[in-house]
Specification:
heterodimer, A: about 400 residues, alpha/beta, Peroxisomal Thiolase, Chain A, domain 1, 2 domains, nine-stranded mixed beta sheet, 11 strands, B: about 140 residues, mainly beta, OB fold (Dihydrolipoamide Acetyltransferase, E2P), five-stranded antiparallel beta sheet, 1 helix, about 5% helix
Chain lengths: ~400, ~140
């Protein structure tokens, strides 16, 4: 068992977001700073109280430096490990270590992207990345990545376990039903299983409705030691467990396309938090594609391997179902600005604070967050709880 | 068939990295992969150190070319841009997996578990290992 003494030693004291969906006229740095300011204000702190920074960018490899410069801070803890969309969930554990050791007192985890409205297209970014970060054993076959990698995982799961496209469609429909309860979500029109199935196929078996949105957005959270969180403005949300696992980068190097590294990150996060899947009240999973939700429900122990399809059937993860999953509407229907991980943290915090209005999960005390990065490459699990769970 | 090694103390073939050696062999029409002398496991993509046991003595050899489809997808593309195409993961009988495509049949007809055989195709970016359905003997 690792990090047991760190269980509940730090808490999220503030959250903020900015530029959701369309941030026309703003740069990604500008909306990141807006989100950061809102998170710090939400915590009842000022930017001068921030002495730890954790951030990452899709394109800028030295991203922590301009963020520090814009914010005008002099941090003693700097974390900018880039693990794709899981990065901001992955930044929790090193931040907790830094807080616990006294290296710093308040860590700002932040991200922003204007991929939707930026003049630099995603195709151009993709072209540049293929040169800066080559994958010579996959790129010549022109997988439409990341989508085709997830499609290969979905096809294998369907073959191995009898999972059907209808099961994946259930996940998209459940996300949409949650989004309809969230005034901040981008996609709030009704969506049916039939509409997902008949949507434009992009990389079989995934249609455009099995895929996340492409939006702008920025998010930030402030992490402090728990004793300090108790005296701040908001009800603290304690980090009970946190762990990250990476087994591969390329989908062709994944040992079993139906099993992700969330099995490892989840087990270690549960061990640290001293809870199990049956204790969790609300689940926020990185749903870049419908297959993600299904794989993570299995790998995090909410159902057995191969039974994810039956588990999500009949609206089981939609509002009113057996397990509330992706209560903001997820990357599929709420927001997905390139790296979505910061938003699952924010939604879990808001659920545990009881601030979610119509979509509030009643009596939510324990939340599980699972960030995903790359092409099922990186998994970061965090377990958050209210004071009652300490 | 070649018995070159990545070991830096050896012959001329060892004077370049695994990636360039693989690429050079492929461009000459040879599909080669590696095997670790220490643990005997096959390795793909080309490495400098065995990802199974950490051994550094990796020997190149020509695989049989026989494999099966582990997973498959059809990337949908407008006809004017070249139309739909297949992307597949192939498990070679030596025990390694690689990304490739299965040719010689419509992309949507490629099936998981289908037996396939490697071939070397000419592409604008250089030679490429592709697969074709294996004809029953």
């Amino acid at each position: 068992m690792i990090n047991e003494r760190l269980r509940g030693s730090a808490a999220i004291a503030g959250v903020g977001h900015a530029g959701i969906a369309y941030a026309t006229g703003f740069t990604e740095m500008e909306i990141l700073v807006q989100a950061a300011h809102r998170a710090v204000t939400d915590a009842g702190l000022t930017m001068q109280d921030i002495d730890g920074i954790a951030t990452a960018s899709v394109s800028a490899t030295m991203w922590a430096m301009p963020v520090i410069e814009h914010l005008g801070i002099r941090p003693t803890f700097i974390e900018s490990t880039m693990l794709g969309g899981s990065s901001f969930v992955a930044h929790l554990l090193p931040a907790i270590h830094a807080l616990e050791s006294g290296q710093c007192n308040a860590v700002l985890i932040c991200y922003g992207s204007t991929q939707r409205t930026s003049s630099l297209s995603r195709a151009e970014i993709g072209k540049a990345r293929s040169k800066l970060d080559p994958q010579p054993y996959e790129a010549p076959y022109q997988p439409l990545n990341p989508l085709s990698s997830y499609a290969l995982a979905a096809a294998r799961h369907m073959h191995q376990y009898g999972t059907r496209r209808e099961h994946l469609a259930e996940i998209a429909v459940a996300a949409r039903k949650w989004a309809q309860l969230n005034p901040e979500a981008l996609m709030r029109d009704p969506l049916t299983i039939e509409e997902v199935l008949s949507a434009r196929m992009v990389s079989d078996p995934l249609t455009v409705r099995d895929c996340c949105l492409v939006t702008d957005g920025a998010g930030a959270v402030v992490l402090v030691r728990s004793d300090r969180a108790k005296s701040l403005k908001q009800k603290p949300v304690y980090v009970l467990g946190s762990c990250t696992a990476v087994w591969n980068r390329q989908i062709s190097s994944m040992h079993d396309l139906t099993v992700t590294a969330a099995q490892q990150s989840g087990r270690l996060a549960y061990d640290m938090a001293k809870v199990g899947p049956s204790d969790i009240d609300v689940v926020e999973l990185y749903d870049a594609f419908t297959i993600n939700t299904l794989l993570f429900l299995e790998d995090l122990g909410f159902c057995k391997k191969g039974e994810g399809g039956d588990f999500v059937a009949d609206g089981a993860i939609a509002p009113g179902g057996r397990l509330p999953v992706n209560t903001n509407g997820g990357g599929l229907s709420c927001v997905h600005p390139g790296m979505y991980g910061i938003f699952i943290l924010i939604e879990a915090v808001r659920q545990l604070r009881g601030e979610c209005g119509e979509r509030q999960v009643q009596g939510a005390e324990l939340a599980l967050v699972n960030g995903n990065g790359g092409t099922l490459s990186s998994q970061s699990t965090a377990i958050l709880g209210t004071e009652a769970t300490l | 068939m070649t018995s070159a090694s990545n070991n830096t103390e050896g012959d001329a073939a060892q004077s370049v990295g695994a990636e360039l050696y693989y690429r050079t062999q492929l461009d000459q029409g040879n599909f080669v992969i590696q095997r670790c002398s220490a643990c005997s496991k096959a390795i793909f993509y080309p490495r400098m150190v065995c990802p199974h046991c950490g051994g550094a003595d990796l020997q190149w050899f020509a695989p049989s070319g026989r494999g099966t489809v582990y997973s498959t997808t059809v990337v949908r593309r407008k006809p004017e841009d070249g139309g739909d195409y297949n992307v597949a993961l192939i498990d070679l009988e030596e025990g390694v997996r690689m990304m490739s495509r299965v040719e010689g049949l419509p992309p949507e007809n490629v099936r998981i578990d289908m037996p396939v055989k490697a071939a070397i195709a000419d592409c604008p970016t250089g030679k490429l290992v592709v697969f074709r359905p294996e004809v029953a003997q």
